[in-house]
Amino acid sequence: MERVRPKKKLGQHFLTNVHLAEKVALSLTGWGNYTHLLEIGPGTGQLTQHLRRLPYRLWLAEVDQESIQYLLAHQLAEPEQLVGDFLRWTPTPCSDQIGQACWGVVGNFPYHISTEIVFKVLEHHQLIGDCVGMFQREVAQRICSPHGSKVYGITSVLTQAFFEAEYLFTVNEGSFFPPPKVKSGVLRLKNRWNPPSCDHRLFFRVVKAAFNQRRKMLSNALSQVLPEGFEDRMKILHLRAEQLPVQTFVELTLAIQEVLSFEGKTILKS
Question: Scanning 71, 110, 198, 248, which has the fewest C-beta atoms within 10 Å of its C-beta?
Fold first, then answer.
């Protein structure tokens, strides 16, 4: 097979810039001493050829059959390296040590599922040391944004609670085929190894509820989450979600969790 047709339904924009592909590959840090590396959406293997030179056991998450046949035909992959759909992937643990990762994740992420990819990384945060991804620029900037920013939101808080998020560089449209209509941004996530001390499911629920009505004060936005008679000892419920740093969301979740535990209630309703 000599070529792969980019498919709009899969959000395929194949990376064509050789030097950029190498730059993305070298943005991986190896943080956590992981031994396995998973590339999401290898497409025609422009990034894959550089990843093969790195000291990791490489795996490829690809759903496009034309891309799979291309990778196999050009000896960029072996059948046993292919893991299928990343969103259905379950990583294998390699170590029980805190600060000892098993996996790195990298890729030119399909824009229409890039946020889902981030949430999948968060789901398996205890196993992933490092993640470098190509996103739509605005999405990458949103994930890295600090509190007080207009684009600071759910993905900002949840990602930054588990990973250090760093915007690395911007990529122009001409580095892809077909060229997207927007600029791209490369983002690096580096595991903090000190996840929030609160209940993570409750934390996710608090953050999502707060930003789902981001124009309202937290007292209103969190009305379905706060226990009855919750006392605002932190003096923050008059603020809006975008005004709270990540750690304050953690502390708020702990305060809610404490009240629920004291009342003998389950953390989350089924």
Answer: 248
